[in-house]
């Protein structure tokens, strides 16, 4: 049967235009599915040149690009502008073109060459609001992919609902760690309770976490590690419970820190946009319990994480995860089940099925 399926569905030649090796949801989604596609299909990723991308809000992670990645376009300084795109995008005979982060691509240049690209064209939408500039909608796609019904409702105002397909945001596969070994490797005390956050959020989004850890340190031996990929931290004197580390860490290193931690705290401010938290889907597979504010970012997750509405609930959630082993196990069992049901492998296959169906 397997050999029959392989003959019936040969390898697909895929081109993808996207961010790459950056601390953002677009890049994380692209990397997770790309690592699955490349196992069975012919993939080329067109990523922005490092010079054009480093000026953007999300800093590039300094690690070597994979063999299937080429720095194939200049990210424009302003939305809707022209810019260089490697002509291999339309000179190669691809079966499928997947576009992620259309607003971050030189759309005017893309439009001039759009009809030269004979591949089926798929747009993966990460934007939390419908773009207001019309160039965004002049690229005609065979299929539009979004993550849930909220995105589909928003997109239906500009695209035919028949073209819109829901494919879940992929989860990083489960990676189990050894806490004692991880703490030794990262020079972290094995006796302390460790809380962990990472990212580039503004200081105000950490306010509740810092306040609660200040309260808890009188009752527990506790340390709060924050890993940041920039040096923008406004506090001159850091509290003793805070271990601030500056590093643009790849996912593998982030998972080492997650295996060190007792609780993972994700800072997010409320928003009116349609959003998902790429950080949550990136990190569920570490099987470290996640605590988050009850915002739109986390609507797709329920028992897999712990949500709070105020500082009192935040403190109670941290204490319960530390002291109540049954509660902790329930959260992590739910997280593992969700990751397995929405793994990057399964999501990548849903894309391949869509490619063949449209």
Description:
With 358 residues, this protein is α/β, with parallel strands linked by helices. It has two domains: 2-170 and 343-357, 3-Layer(aba) Sandwich (Rossmann fold); 179-341, Glycogen Phosphorylase B (Rossmann fold), CATH 3.40.50.2000. 34% of the residues lie in helices and 17% in strands. It has helices spanning 2-8, 25-40, 50-53, 88-91, 107-112, 149-155, 179-185, 207-216, 251-260, 278-283, 311-323, 325-341, 344-357; strands at 13-17, 42-48, 69-73, 96-100, 120-124, 143-146, 164-166, 193-198, 222-228, 242-246, 263-265, 290-293, 306-308. Helix 6 links the parallel strand 6 and strand 7. Helix 2 crosses helix 13 (344-357), helix 7 (179-185) packs across helix 9 (251-260) and helix 8 (207-216) crosses helix 11 (311-323). The longest helix is centred in the last third of the chain and has 17 residues, at 325-341. The chain starts with a helix and ends with a helix.
Summarize the structure.
The chain has 358 residues and is an alpha/beta fold.
Helix and strand topology:
Layout: H1 2-8, E1 13-17, H2 25-40, E2 42-48, H3 50-53, E3 69-73, H4 88-91, E4 96-100, H5 107-112, E5 120-124, E6 143-146, H6 149-155, E7 164-166, H7 179-185, E8 193-198, H8 207-216, E9 222-228, E10 242-246, H9 251-260, E11 263-265, H10 278-283, E12 290-293, E13 306-308, H11 311-323, H12 325-341, H13 344-357
Parallel strand pairs: 1-2, 1-4, 2-3, 4-5, 5-6, 6-7, 8-9, 8-11, 9-10, 11-12, 12-13
Helix pairs in contact: 2-13, 7-9, 8-11
